[in-house]
Specification:
It is a single chain. With 343 residues, the protein is α+β, with helices and mostly antiparallel strands. 19% of the residues lie in helices and 39% in strands. The two termini are 49 Å apart. GO terms for molecular function: isomerase activity; mannose-1-phosphate guanylyltransferase (GTP) activity. One of its GO terms (biological process) is polysaccharide metabolic process.
C-alpha cells in the first residue's frame, strides 16, 4: 500500500466526530473483479463540513464470485481493507449486550471462554451506521497464500530444496526437518507445528472449507510471557492423557497465578533462573530443578532471565480451558499469594 493510505487511517477519527456513525472503515477502489476480497456496497456519497469525501455503507458482500464482483464494482463497491475505527461508547455497549466484561483484567480472565468469531461477523456486518473513506491506490489483502507469496521475494523460507522446474512454487517451513519439492509448479507448501499444507496456489483460499478440525489444540503459541510448543501428546486406553510442552518464559515476564482442576504438572527447568510460587510458598528455581504441581495447586513463575521448561501434563482431560487465573501481574500475585507488597 502507498503512504497516503496511512493518512486515511488518521482521517477516520475526525470522520467519526463529524458524522453520526458508530464505525468508520477504509475501502480500496477495486482495479479488477476478484473473488478473494470482501466488498462494501455504498448507500450514498457525502462530504463532511471539513470537505472530507466519504460514503455511507449499505451492506457487505463477502468474497463473491468474479461475475458477482463485476456487478458490485458497477455499484461503486469498495474492497474492505479491514481497518476499523469506532466510538468507545458503541463498543462498550456491544460488550454489555453480550454479557461480556468491560474491565481489562476480567476480560483477560474470560478470554479463552469467549466465542470464536471474527470482529467482522460479530460487529461490523450487524452495525447500522457505518461510514467509509474511499482509498485510491495500491492495496493488497494478504489473507490468502497466493497473495502473500507475491510479496515474498524468495521461494524458500526455512529448510528445504526446491528444483528449478518447480516454477512459482513457494516453501514456507517452520519445522526443523527439510522439505523437498521436485518438478511441482504453482504450489504453496507451508509447514508449521500445527500442520502441513500442500495446495495449488489459486485453490489455497479454500482452506477454511476443507479444514474440519477447527478445535484442534494449538501446537505452538506466542503469549504475553513468552511462547510454548507441544512436543508430544498421547491418550492411553481408559482416557489417561499425557501432554509434553517446551515452555519459554522471557526475562522479566511471568505466568499468571493459576490452578488446574483436571491435571497435574511436572516442570523440569532446562535453562535460566527465576522465582516460583507454589501454594503460597516462594522459592528460587534454576536449571536442573524439578517442580511437581498437583491438581488444584496454585502456582506461578517469573523469569529473572530467559527460561526454558519442559512441562509434562497428566490427567483425564488435558484442555487449554482447564485453567483458573487468580492474578496476572507479578505485584498482584505477590499480594495474593504471599500477603506482602514488593518494595
Amino acid at each position: 500500500m502507498e503512504t497516503h493510505f496511512f493518512q486515511k487511517v488518521k482521517e477516520l477519527e475526525p470522520l467519526l466526530k463529524d458524522t453520526d456513525a458508530d464505525l468508520g472503515l477504509i475501502g480500496a477502489a477495486p482495479d479488477r473483479p476478484s473473488s478473494k476480497f470482501g466488498y462494501m456496497v455504498p448507500g450514498e456519497h457525502a462530504v463532511t463540513e471539513q470537505g472530507m469525501d466519504y460514503v455511507r455503507i449499505s451492506h457487505f458482500a463477502e468474497k463473491p464470485d468474479e461475475e458477482q464482483a463485476r456487478g458490485l464494482i458497477q455499484q461503486s463497491a469498495l474492497w474492505n481493507c479491514g481497518v476499523f475505527a469506532f466510538r468507545l461508547g458503541y463498543i462498550i455497549q456491544q460488550l454489555l449486550d453480550r454479557g461480556l466484561p468491560i474491565q481489562y483484567e476480567e476480560m483477560l480472565r474470560q478470554y479463552s471462554r469467549m466465542e470464536k468469531i471474527s470482529f467482522d461477523y460479530a460487529i461490523v456486518e450487524r452495525a447500522e451506521k457505518i461510514v467509509a473513506l474511499p482509498y485510491h491506490g495500491i492495496w493488497k489483502d494478504l489473507g490468502t497464500w497466493d497473495m502473500l507469496t507475491e510479496e515474498i521475494h524468495t521461494p524458500l523460507v526455512g529448510k528445504g530444496v526446491l528444483t528449478d522446474d518447480s516454477f512459482n512454487t513457494h516453501i514456507i517451513n517452520e519445522l526443523d526437518i527439510p522439505i523437498t519439492v521436485i518438478g511441482a509448479p504453482n504450489l504453496i507448501v507451508a509447514a508449521s507445528p500445527d500442520g502441513i499444507l500442500v495446495s495449488e496456489k489459486n485453490a489455497s483460499l479454500r482452506i477454511k472449507e476443507v479444514l474440519s478440525f477447527g478445535d484442534q489444540r494449538p501446537m505452538y503459541e506466542e503469549r504475553r510471557w513468552g511462547r510454548y510448543r507441544v512436543l508430544d501428546y498421547i491418550k492411553y486406553p481408559g482416557g489417561y492423557e499425557v501432554l509434553t510442552k517446551r515452555i519459554c518464559v522471557t526475562a522479566g515476564n511471568n505466568l499468571s497465578y493459576q490452578y488446574h482442576l483436571l491435571r497435574s504438572e511436572v516442570w523440569t527447568v532446562i535453562s535460566g533462573e527465576g522465582e516460583m510460587i507454589l501454594d503460597g510458598v516462594a522459592s528460587k528455581v534454576d536449571k536442573g530443578d524439578v517442580i511437581v504441581i498437583p491438581a488444584e495447586a496454585r502456582h506461578s513463575l517469573k523469569g529473572f532471565t530467559d527460561m526454558e521448561i519442559i512441562e509434562v501434563q497428566t490427567g483425564s482431560q488435558l484442555i487449554e480451558d482447564d485453567i483458573v487465573r487468580l492474578a496476572v501481574h507479578w505485584e498482584e500475585i505477590i499480594m495474593i499469594a504471599l500477603g506482602s507488597e514488593i518494595h
